[in-house]
Amino acid sequence: MFKRKLTALGYHNTDNLNIQSQGEFHALVSWLEDQKIRHYKIEDRAGLRQIDSPDWLKSYETYLNDVGCPHKSSNHRAVADYLLALAVRLEYGDNVDKFKEASTEKLKEVVKSSAPTVVNENPLDNLNFESQEFKQGVQALAQYLNVAQHPDHLVTLQGVCSLVRERLSVEGQERVKEHKQAKPFPLKESTLGFESGDPVLNHATKVLQLLYVHDLRDLQTRINEAIVAVQAITANPKTDTRLGKVGR
């Protein structure tokens, strides 16, 4: 509760101070008067300095009355808060020019300087993507995976990444297994719908039609997934069929 004020005043025990402890409370009051508040002359502070004396309580009550403390002497927490606030105010008054120099920018600099430095250990940050060695590595990788090469080696690298993600990843391997279990489509038995007179052209046209249908099915699957996702957000399971309303 008092840690910030104690720290600002430079008190030696900021973390473990126990206000309910008679010895620690006596020591705090004596220290505040002796070092920060200084309401009494030095020779008049003897009563508060003798924290183990049986007469300390009498000196303490007189002191609270002299500094204008509105709280009862038995309420240690309230008294400590009052004396700490008084000490902070007097400390600021004695060092106005010093505290005027403080600013938000300087505080940020202090926080930044005291913050731990985060070391990035990502090995990719140390790569030179434009070096000849890197370009040759991309070229060799593309040749190994049978990926068509682009004049821009970074575009080629994107193609390699797509292949690895779609075919060589765990999910890609599962999709490949599913495709292997599928039955081959009887391309020769399928009808084109028209005849070009060229068997090679007819075969190529059938392949293009199948690829187009495959893309349409994939698009339809994604559309269905999007619809389901939207319905999960907007649909209201408590549908009132009597009103003929579904959802919100």
From TrEMBL:
Record organism: Ornithodoros moubata
Domain of life, per lineage: Eukaryota
Lineage: Eukaryota, Metazoa, Ecdysozoa, Arthropoda, Chelicerata
One Pfam family in the UniProt entry: RLL
InterPro entries in alphabetical order: RTRAF
Name by which UniProt lists this protein: Carnitine deficiency associated protein
